[in-house]
Design a protein that fits this description.
The protein is mainly beta. The protein has two helices and 22 strands.
Length: 202
């Protein structure tokens, strides 16, 4: 075994201090894991629920606010941006490279980027809601104003341009429901886990 110290590029990720997160975030639940190398801006508009994990490389530009529920995972290079607001429900999974967009330039009636003064731009900000137990696979894109129902599945590379129903599996271009997802075992497992965690000391 080599005794040469590993550079950070070859070393396991390190976690941000929970005390710092608790002092700077709008809310930081117990057991939260946030890895160095992510961006959380501004922290005062970001709430993270119990046992959630944010991997290195994640970018959250909270805009009007970002609320992340319990047991949520945001994987490497996922992002939230656009200046609006975002709400992610408990147990949701946001896979690598997913883009959640909460606002966008309008293509008519104004200049279209932040290098010009605000009075010359036309920008729409909105809210994105992702329901509990939803799972968005790699490189999916969620557009402004969309609500994704509880337990819905979004296939890799999909563009979510409309609201999605609960407990449906969506794929394709354009996005269509290709089948149902059984909620019963998922909700039962969540109930067992929550009962166990209530018995654990903080």
């Amino acid at each position: 075994m080599s005794s040469i110290p590993l550079p950070k590029e070859l070393s396991p990720g390190t976690l941000l201090d929970l005390g710092v997160l608790a002092a700077t975030l709008s809310h930081c639940g117990r057991g939260v894991r946030v890895y160095t190398g992510c961006r959380l801006v501004p922290p005062a508009r970001i709430s993270i629920g119990d046992f959630s994990q944010i991997d290195e490389g994640v970018r959250i530009f909270a805009g009007e606010g970002a609320t992340i529920g319990r047991h949520v995972h945001l994987a490497f290079e996922a992002s939230i941006s656009g200046g609006g607001s975002c709400e992610i429900g408990d147990y949701a999974g946001i896979s690598a490279g997913v883009r959640i967009v909460t606002g966008s330039e309008e293509i008519q009636g104004g200049l279209t980027n932040p290098t010009v003064p605000a009075e010359y731009r036309r920008v729409t900000r909105s809210r994105v809601r992702i329901g509990a137990h939803a799972l968005l696979f790699t490189n999916a894109v969620v557009l402004p104003g969309v609500s994704i129902g509880e337990g819905a599945i979004v296939a890799a590379g999909a563009v979510v341009h409309r609201d999605l129903k609960p407990w449906c599996i969506y794929a394709g271009t354009p996005l269509v429901c290709i089948g149902p997802r059984d909620p019963a075992p998922i909700l039962a497992a969540a109930t067992v886990l929550e009962d166990r965690q209530r018995c654990q000391p903080d």
